[in-house]
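Quick check before the chapter quiz. The format below is the same one you will see on the exam, so make sure you can read both the input and the output lines.
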Amino acid sequence: MRPHSERSNLTHAPRLDKSTDLKTKSRPASSAAWSYAWPQQFLLFALFFTGLMLLHAPLLRLPYFWDEAGYYIPAARDLFLTGALIPQSTLSNAHPPLVMAWLALAWRIFGYSTLVTRTAMLALSAFSLLGLFRLSRIAANLPVACATTALVALYPVYFTQSSLAEVDLAAAGLTFWALAAYIADHPWKCAVWFSLAALAKETAILAPLALFGWDLLAHVIRRHANERWKQILPPEDRRTHSFYLLLPVVPLAVWYAYHYAKTGFLLGNPEFFRYNVATTLNPLRIPLALGMRLWQLLGYLGLYLLTLSGLLAMLRPPQKQNGDSRPRISFSMQAAFLSVILAYLAFMSAVGGAVLARYLLAVVPLVILAWVSTLWRRVRYWGLIVGAVAITFVAGLFINPPYGFSLEDNLAYRDYIVMHAEASRFLAMRYPGARILTAWPASDELTRPWLGYVNANDSHHFRVLRIEDFAASQIDIAAAARGQFDVALVFSTKYQPPHPLLGNWDEWQRIKEKFFGYHRDLPPEDVAQRLVGAVVYHKELNGQWIAVIDVH
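Here is the expected output.
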């Protein structure tokens, strides 16, 4: 099987006596924030879950999309049917099984359906928002926590990932809970949450390792730092010592040992490792990927407005509150968050064949928290700016940007699913039992009825010949084997904006082709001409297209 696309100035803390160590004095406030009564926490969770369910109501019965169909749903279904932690119906990519186990449990209780799947994922999203709210409340205050949580919930990448059966959002949410425990100085809770995050997705181990490295560096710096610089260092009297931050490595190591014992591969199947690691460790590719990661962190799909507003706000003096300047998040918390952000930026720029925005879901909310806190501290009508950013995020869900992006990052993924479901029904009615030429993931959509595109009888009769994509080179290969298929199902595998930024810069196109797997799909008419066939079905929707070509 073709590997799936995993082939992505903090301010404000409670006002304290200036003569007292910041972190030491803030611990009672942090502890109070941490020790909310569980009924209150449950009510907040219920509020978040209800809101997410209402906003996602039109999406809850959609068939599975891209990486859902290619890996996560098959892996969860294997666990559901056989109890196998390592998938059998698809090649294992060595992802830890926590989220797949959660889906299997939901199916065991409520039955297998896309509605159950997406509801279960929305429950994880609501729990993640609750963790972010707690983290923001401890680090800042109630207004900042409310605004941050609302913006993150509306941020297009978070919104779409909330109901998709993938693992990045769950890992991010558990990381929020762990960071809240870290800054509230609850060592064992911190270790448990980080362990669960790593078992949701292996890259979540970056956060505790980053904090561990920062703690060690701070220990060295402290010997030579003056009092001013000591404000950015972790307090000396913390109970969350570096040792606890290494504990999450243990369950992750146990999982990899188990995976190696069962498959003979440590980090997934060889093709997955080649695509996501071996071919990405290129000294020319890494800085290019870093630039893309910085854009995803600070500018992507409306984040630019929040970043620009925050930078301009830093030119203003703090607002007054009860005669004093509004306080900031403590410098030690800022440094802790920054260490996690830098770790993600560095690692995700070096590893990952596809530079997907969802891989940064654990740190983008930290940046949003930073800017919201800055606006609260320095701008009188900060709520108006937050409202404008929220409107920009909502617009980003429906309006595609003037540059290429992953379809899963806004509601373009819905357009893809709708078109593919309609084309699949057309094939079932017009060409039952046909031999079909297509590319992944349509090859799975036509042959696996439990993905939601075709029924069991139709998928049983379809015979699929798969090519990599619909670039000219692949179509020419298919044309040479024209007698082996009757129909071609062709579709746009990448979004092409009508007037792309840098679209006429040939050097940038070559860079994308060399380092990021970029290609141009031939339009349906050109494919039909090369295959000596006729287009019998064609649909376009918001910059995407799909077509059926009869090559009899």
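If your answer matched, good. The CA atoms of residues 93 and 270 lie 9 Å apart.
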